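Memo to structure team: turn this sequence into structure tokens by end of day. - J.P.
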Amino acid sequence: MGRAYQNRKESMAKTADAKTKIYSKYAREIYVCAKSGGVDPNGNLSLRGLIERAKKDQVPGHVIDKAIDKAKGGGGEDFAVARYEGFGPGNCIVIVDCLTDNPNRTIADVRHCFTKTKCKMGTPGSVSHMFDHCAILAFRGDDEEAVLEALMIADVDVTDIENENGIITVFTPNTEYAKARQALTDTLGEIEFEVDEIQFLPQTSTPISEEDMPMFERFIDMLNDVEDVQNIYHNAEV
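Reply from structure team:
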């Protein structure tokens, strides 16, 4: 079959590996969210948003159902949130969010990514104060004034609201996520959110030079290969 087949097979393997990583990430996050907040998406808005995101990322229904069924049981794995902070290539700042059932293994794996790329892990809080922990909800619309009014009536603390190219984006503190989402759906009905998530937004950006770019890419790839890593936030301008 020759080299062309080999290249295609390797490409397929990489795609399959990437999909497996995405499926595993969502399954773990859905399990933790359902176990802590309830298995009914109508009563657990964080779970509902997570399931919708998973479907957009083409996670099969059986993966989602299995994670929720697992959360219904009393046993199962005991995952905990682990967050690590530090300084990446080019002196960018980095937050690495993990879900782990073995914190000693996870911190060792994450530290390995930092040390192998000549980066430095920091202490808790060393860089997180340079990020805003935000809930972000974006959807199609054109009347941001009406949206803002609905959020204010629901006593939602709105950090910012934007309307660009027919997309309204609402920013609130992460603690306001469920209240903001509920206020929007109560006012506008069922919404197909373009963005529906909680993340860390950097307050400033750090340009990465061409010299530092290969190391930065290696650093991110290594972190993505760590099974327990769920999300990576950074302020690198690439």
